[in-house]
C-alpha cells in the first residue's frame, strides 16, 4: 500500500502551490495532501466492499431460487393427459394433490375418476379413458322402430304411421291423407305495360319447371341440423308453411317453436291417489309415498310431515337408538336429460349448529359414481352430478349429515334424494 500512496502523493505535488519563501513544499502542504489521498483511498475501499456485498447477496438469492425449483420439481408428478372425449379437473401436480376426470355425453369413464400424486412422484389409481356408450342397448325406439347408434346419441327410424324421437307419436291421419295437389298450386300472373307476363308464387312456395308453384318443405331444409333447426321437438310440413309439435307432457310455447313443461301437479292433471305426493317432472309427473323406517332395535320414527320423519325418544341406555338418525327427509328433483356437468343438484345444512364440526357423506344409492358429496362451506354440503345423465332414468342417493362436538356425535340427519331424469333435453 505504501508505494501506491507515495506515487499518488508524487503525482499530486506538481499541482500544489509553491511556497513563496523557498523552492520545496512546506510540511503542512505535504500533510494536507497525504490526508486527502487517505480519504480518497478509504472511500474507494468502502465502495469496493459494498459492491462485493451486493454481488454476494445476489448470488445467494439466485442459488436459493434454483434450489427451490429443484425441490419443487422433485416433489411433483408429471401432469396427466386429458382423456379423449373427456375433461380433467385440477392442474396441481404437487405430492398430495388430486386430479379428477369426467367424460362427455355418450361416453363412459373407465379407470379411476380421481388420482392422487404420491410421495414416489407417481399417480395412484388406473389410467383413465372414455368409452363410447351404446345408446341403443336400452331399446329406446317404440312401436317397431329401428335404433341407430350415433357418436353421443341415438336416432330412431320409425315405421309407417309413427313419428317422434322414439317413434312414440302416431302420425295424424289428416296430415297423412293430404293429396299432392295441396303442396302445389298455380302461380299468380299479371300482364305489365310492355305486354309481357310476370308470375310469382305465394309465400312458402317456389317456382318449379313447368310454371308450377311447389311447396317449400321447411322441415327438410332446416330441422335436420341442430344449428338451423326451427322446432325444438318435431316439425310438421304443411302447405306453404310448417308447424311445431311437442311430446306428451309439454305444450307449445307462444313463440310457436319451443316446448314448455306442463305442471300436472299444479293444474290437477294427475292420477295420484290420496296419501301420495304428486311430483312434477319434465314431461310428466310421479306419484310417491315416502315411508318412515320400520321400528327396530328400540328405534322408531314418527311422520311429522309428508316428506319428514322424526325419531321417537330413545329408551334409557339404548345406544343403538342414540346412534340412529335424528330425522329422515325425502327430496325429489326433476332434471332434463343430458345436462352439462359438474352440476350442483342439492344442498344440505342445519339452522341450529351447536357442535364444532359437520361431516357430509353419501351412504348409498344407484348413482354408479354419477353423484358425489362435497363441502361448500363450514355448514353446507352439496350433492354434485359429476357427468351428464341421459334419460329417461332415475338416480337415487342417501346422504348423511353428522354433527360433532370434540369428536363426539351429537346427532345426524338422513336425506333421501331421488332425481327423475326426463327423456328430453328440454
UniProtKB/TrEMBL annotation:
The keyword Lipoprotein is assigned to this record = no
Annotated signal sequence range = 1-21
What Pfam families does UniProt report for this protein, alphabetically?
Answer: cEGF, EGF, Fibulin_C, Sushi
Q: Which SMART domains match?
A: CCP, EGF, EGF_CA
In alphabetical order, the GO MF annotations are: calcium ion binding
Q: Where in the cell is it found?
A: Secreted, Extracellular space, Extracellular matrix
Give UniProt keywords alphabetically: Disulfide bond, EGF-like domain, Extracellular matrix, Glycoprotein, Repeat, Secreted, Signal, Sushi
Specify the EGF-like domain's residue ranges.
132-168, 215-260
Q: Which cysteines are joined by disulfide bonds?
A: 103-130, 158-167
Boundaries of every Sushi domain copy: 75-132
The organism's place on the tree of life at top rank: Eukaryota
For whether the record's keyword set contains Glycoprotein, the answer is yes
Q: Which family does it belong to?
A: Belongs to the fibulin family.
Q: What is this protein called?
A: Fibulin-7-like
Taxonomic lineage: Eukaryota, Metazoa, Chordata, Craniata, Vertebrata
Amino acid at each position: 500500500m505504501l508505494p501506491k500512496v507515495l506515487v499518488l502523493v508524487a503525482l499530486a505535488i506538481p499541482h500544489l502551490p509553491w511556497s513563496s519563501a523557498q523552492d520545496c513544499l512546506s510540511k503542512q502542504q505535504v500533510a494536507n495532501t497525504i490526508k486527502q489521498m487517505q480519504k480518497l483511498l478509504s472511500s474507494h475501499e468502502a465502495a469496493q466492499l459494498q459492491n462485493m456485498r451486493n454481488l454476494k447477496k445476489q448470488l445467494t438469492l439466485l442459488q436459493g431460487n434454483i434450489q427451490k425449483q429443484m425441490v419443487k420439481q422433485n416433489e411433483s408428478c408429471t401432469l396427466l393427459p386429458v382423456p379423449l372425449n373427456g375433461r380433467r379437473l385440477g392442474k396441481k401436480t404437487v405430492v398430495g394433490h388430486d386430479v379428477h376426470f369426467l367424460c362427455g355425453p355418450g361416453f363412459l369413464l373407465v379407470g379411476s375418476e380421481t388420482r392422487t400424486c404420491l410421495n414416489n412422484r407417481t399417480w395412484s389409481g388406473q389410467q383413465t379413458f372414455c368409452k363410447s356408450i351404446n345408446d341403443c342397448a336400452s331399446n329406446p325406439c317404440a312401436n317397431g322402430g329401428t335404433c341407430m347408434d350415433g357418436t353421443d346419441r341415438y336416432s330412431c327410424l320409425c315405421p309407417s304411421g309413427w313419428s317422434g324421437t322414439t317413434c312414440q307419436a302416431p302420425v295424424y291421419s289428416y296430415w297423412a291423407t293430404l293429396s299432392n295437389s295441396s303442396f302445389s298450386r298455380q302461380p299468380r300472373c299479371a300482364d305489365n305495360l310492355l305486354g309481357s307476363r310476370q308470375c310469382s308464387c305465394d309465400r312458402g312456395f317456389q317456382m318449379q319447371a313447368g310454371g308450377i308453384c311447389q311447396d317449400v318443405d321447411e322441415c327438410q331444409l332446416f330441422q335436420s341440423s341442430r344449428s338451423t333447426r326451427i322446432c325444438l321437438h318435431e316439425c310438421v310440413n304443411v302447405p306453404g308453411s310448417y308447424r311445431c309439435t311437442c311430446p306428451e307432457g309439454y305444450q307449445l310455447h307462444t313463440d310457436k317453436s319451443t316446448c314448455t313443461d306442463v305442471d300436472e301437479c299444479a293444474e290437477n292433471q294427475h292420477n295420484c291417489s290420496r296419501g301420495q305426493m304428486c311430483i312434477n317432472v319434465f314431461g310428466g309427473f310421479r306419484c310417491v309415498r315416502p315411508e318412515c323406517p320400520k321400528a327396530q332395535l328400540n328405534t322408531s320414527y314418527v311422520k311429522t310431515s309428508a316428506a319428514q320423519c322424526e325419531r321417537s325418544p330413545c329408551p334409557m341406555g339404548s345406544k343403538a337408538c342414540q346412534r340412529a338418525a335424528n330425522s329422515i327427509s325425502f327430496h325429489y328433483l326433476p332434471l332434463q336429460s343430458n345436462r352439462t356437468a359438474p352440476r350442483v343438484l342439492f344442498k344440505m345444512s342445519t339452522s341450529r349448529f351447536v357442535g364444532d364440526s359437520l361431516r357430509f357423506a353419501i351412504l348409498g344409492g344407484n348413482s354408479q359414481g354419477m353423484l358425489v358429496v362435497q363441502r361448500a362451506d363450514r355448514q353446507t354440503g352439496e350433492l354434485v352430478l359429476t357427468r351428464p345423465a341421459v334419460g329417461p332414468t332415475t338416480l337415487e342417493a342417501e346422504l348423511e349429515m353428522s354433527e360433532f362436538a370434540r369428536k363426539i356425535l351429537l346427532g345426524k340427519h338422513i336425506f333421501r334424494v331421488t332425481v327423475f331424469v326426463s327423456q328430453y333435453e328440454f
